[in-house]
Every structure is written in C-alpha cells, then in structure tokens.
C-alpha cells in the first residue's frame, strides 16, 4: 500500500456502550478478530466470507463510526485497519479481552454465546 494516493477515514473512539454495541454482532466481531490477528491493514474483501458486499460495507461502517476501525483507500483499493492503540487508550483492556475471547472460541470450534 503506497502513501502516494491514500486517504484515511476514521472517527474518535466512541463510548464503551457504543463500542460494545458494535462488537456485539458476530459478523463485526469476526471482522475485528481478523483485523487484530493480521496486525495491520487488510483489504476489506478479506474480512468476510458468508455475507454480500453491501452487508459487509454496513458492518464496516458501524465499526468505523464506533471508532474501532478506520478505512484506508490507497491506489483504488479499500483497506480496514483496527485502531488498537486508540481503542486501548480510550478503553484500556477492552479490545484485548474481546479479541482474546473470540480467538479462544474460534480455536475451540465453538460459536460465541449471545
């Protein structure tokens, strides 16, 4: 991803209630889990398997509005980046706990409980 033709869209980290609301949905939680495990920006199409593009766009918008992710458009490609440091600063320990639980659920093959 080059810096020559890049735009970044992000928002401040929202309240704990709004961030937890964004992470509550299983699709969004899986997107955040994949972003966290990747450790850097990921092409948006790599963040979902079983939903269509318009639904994925909706979910990414909710995460972005909660300040959990940012959208990066570089050279015509759209990427998402988890705002780990920003979320950690605003809500210490929250993201690590949620992603850790999601990773443990994925490793065990169990679906996260609602």
Automatic annotation (TrEMBL):
One MF annotation (Gene Ontology) recorded for this entry: DNA-binding transcription factor activity
InterPro entries referenced in this protein's UniProt entry, alphabetically: ArsR-like_HTH (IPR011991), HTH_ArsR_DNA-bd_dom (IPR001845), WH-like_DNA-bd_sf (IPR036388), WH_DNA-bd_sf (IPR036390)
Any Pfam family: HTH_20
Domain HTH arsR-type: 8-102
Protein name listed in UniProt: HTH arsR-type domain-containing protein
Organism: Nocardia cerradoensis
Lineage: Bacteria, Bacillati, Actinomycetota, Actinomycetes, Mycobacteriales
């Amino acid at each position: 991803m080059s810096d020559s033709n890049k735009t970044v869209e992000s928002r401040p980290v929202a309240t704990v209630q709004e961030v937890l609301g964004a992470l509550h949905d299983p699709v969004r939680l899986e997107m955040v889990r994949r972003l966290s495990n990747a450790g850097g920006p990921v092409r948006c199409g790599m963040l979902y398997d079983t939903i269509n593009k318009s639904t994925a766009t909706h979910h990414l918008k909710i995460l972005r509005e909660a300040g959990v992710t940012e959208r990066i458009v570089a050279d015509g490609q759209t990427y998402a980046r988890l705002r780990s440091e920003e979320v950690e600063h605003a809500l210490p320990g929250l993201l690590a706990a949620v992603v850790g639980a999601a990773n443990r659920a994925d490793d065990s093959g169990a679906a996260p409980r609602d």
